[in-house]
């Protein structure tokens, strides 16, 4: 997801001729990774037994950091991409792709056997809440300008 965030940030920055999308996506990734790490350590909920898992995973399971990061990054990237688009079908298409990517990441975590479905659902909810925090912060503070 970090690679997707960097790619989306660079593409949006080039289109807008502004580094704001890169900054917003960097804050999104750093915040969600830090917060999920703290919540995992605090809650200490275990993962499914790894005897039949397709992939190996260690640490705690809830919330799924992959699902949370996917929801937050895809949501913020979609929000940044649709800010200046007036076409409703184009906006809906961008949001649909973002939702499908976040869903695919979460479903893959359950399929691989490294998370319970509740871990993934919790990750999605947490990621959406973090995305809402980023978007609300932008709405309240606006683009922070360098005073001269």
Plain-language structure description:
- It is a single chain.
- The protein is an all-alpha fold and 148 residues long.
- It has one domain (2-141).
- The protein is built from five helices and no strands.
- It has helices spanning 2-16, 20-43, 65-82, 88-111, 117-141.
- Helix 3 (65-82) packs antiparallel against helix 4 (88-111), helix 3 runs parallel beside helix 5 and helix 4 runs antiparallel to helix 5 (117-141).
- The longest helix is centred in the last third of the chain and has 25 residues, at 117-141.
Q: What does the oligomeric state look like here? A: single chain
Round the mean pLDDT to the nearest integer and report it. 84
Number of helices: 5
The tally of strands reads 0
Q: What percent strand? A: under 5%
Largest sheet: none
Q: For the terminal residues, how far apart are their CA atoms?
A: 35 Å
Model regions low in confidence, pLDDT < 50 over at least 5 residues: none
Q: Strand pairing plus helix content: what structural class?
A: mainly alpha
**What would you call the shape?**
elongated
Q: Indicate the percent of residues in helices.
A: over 70%
Order of helices and strands: HHHHH
Gyration radius, rounded:
16 Å
Tell me the number of structural domains: 1
């Amino acid at each position: 997801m970090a690679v997707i965030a960097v790619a989306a940030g660079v593409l949006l920055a080039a289109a807008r001729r502004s580094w704001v999308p890169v900054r917003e996506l960097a804050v999104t990734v750093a915040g969600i990774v830090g917060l999920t790490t703290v919540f995992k350590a605090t809650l200490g909920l275990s993962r499914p037994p790894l005897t039949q898992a397709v992939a190996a995973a260690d640490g705690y399971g809830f919330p799924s950091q992959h699902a949370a990061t996917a929801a937050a990054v895809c949501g913020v990237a979609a929000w940044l991409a649709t800010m200046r688009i007036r076409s409703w079908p184009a906006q809906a298409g961008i949001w649909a792709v973002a939702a499908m990517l976040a869903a695919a990441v979460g479903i893959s975590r359950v399929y691989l056997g490294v998370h319970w479905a509740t871990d993934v659902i919790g990750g999605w909810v947490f990621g959406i809440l973090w995305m809402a925090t980023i978007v609300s912060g932008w709405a309240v503070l606006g683009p922070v300008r360098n005073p001269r």
